[in-house]
Amino acid sequence: MAEGTYLHGVEHYWLENTDKPIEILAASTIGLVATADDADETVFPLNVPTLVNSDKMLASAGTTGTLFWALKDIYTQAGAVCVVVRVAEDSVDQTQEIANVVGSVDDETGSYTGLQAMLTAESRLGVRPRLIIAPDFSQLPEVKPAMETVCKKLRAIPLIDGSEGGYSAVIAEAALLDEAFFVNGGVKLFDADLAETVGRWMSPTIAGHIVRVDNEEGYWHSPSSRKIYGIMGSRETIDHAIGSTTSKANLYNSENVSVIVNQQGGYYLFGNRLANGTMLPHQRIRYIVGDSIMYAHQEMLDRNVTKQYVEGVIKRVKKLIRRLKLRGVIRDGDVWVDKELNEAATGTGQVYFDYSLGFYDIAERLTFRQHVMTEFNESIFE
Questions:
Q1: Closest Cα to residue 81, out of 203, 179, 212?
Q2: If you ran DSSP here, which 8-state letter would residue 182 be given?
Q3: Cβ count near 199 (within 10 Å)
């Protein structure tokens, strides 16, 4: 009731709970840009983000283009939530087909096509793609930068295929990328629908593999050195020997290219790093935690900046950091306000909060040192 309004009776104020926990956002949604001219247009309309949460939707994906086999390779690895953007094929003009994949934004009509349509997925479907692939296209020089640009806006990770054009060509491709998980070598698998062994691009299989590791261990764990299911190897022959610095697998990894290796009779993803050298799990933690904090504080906009307001925000973030620490996502962290910075911003409508995250190291290199001791034989002569 407004101050000064007369009341003879009992009143009740429903005070807002400002101590609500920060919810962690979903980390494992796959964004897929694919072609399929014979797909069911009512299920997969052109250039419209479509939610796929079951392999049952394969029945509507057609058989031409890349949509069917990309979804199939994802679901061979794990149950996943996917956002599909179907684009038009063009078997005559490859330049036009690439343009369809890259997509555009029409400011006049507000239409988004191709990769750009991924930017509308959250407003249309309520989910944000976090791992984005465009198999059969991501190896092309015109598509790679577009994927990185869109993913930067979404704070997602692009999974980009190498050209499989040989070591020198592939590492040159990786050197041009930044926050991309660059995979090379392709996959070989037996396709029961075709009744034959086929070779395919690697990114859908690895996207599904990452989601499976997310489901079993958590998005803060590396998918490397985890077994990949349902494949018969990689299209490119990649030798791997534990401890070897000159094997092709190690040489690729040293240039931030991830591959598939055969060890002890199974096939494993081998490689932890984005093209810029950042550990994949660390980048994903940064994005997921950062976005979770922003989403949780959207409701705190346009409030009076009181001492209670500042303390409330700090308390919420501290609780989140404590939960992340207890779950093993981070080693530790903290949150604080910079007094000098905020005093200088007084009157501008802006408040600054700083927080830190301490990541666990990833055991990318284990070193054992062997000692030969003659002293162990002394007891023989006692």
A1: 212
A2: E
A3: 15
Per-residue tens of pLDDT for the chain, all 382 residues:
466 789 888 888 776 666 788 888 999 999 999 999 999 999 999 999 999 999 999 999 999 999 999 999 999 999 999 999 999 999 889 999 999 999 999 888 889 999 999 999 999 999 999 999 999 999 999 999 999 999 999 999 999 999 999 999 999 999 999 999 999 999 999 998 889 999 999 999 999 999 999 999 999 999 999 999 999 999 999 999 989 999 999 999 999 999 999 988 899 999 999 999 999 999 999 999 999 999 999 989 999 999 999 999 999 999 999 999 999 999 999 999 999 999 999 999 999 999 999 999 999 999 999 999 888 888 788 7
Q: Count the helix, strand and coil residues of the chain and give each as a percent rounded to the nearest 5.
A: 35, 15, 50
Enter the pTM of the model.
0.93
What CATH fold (topology level) applies to the domain 30-218+225-271?
Answer: Rossmann fold (3.40.50)
For tokens 């599904």, the residue is: 208
All structural domains of the chain with their residue ranges: 30-218+225-271
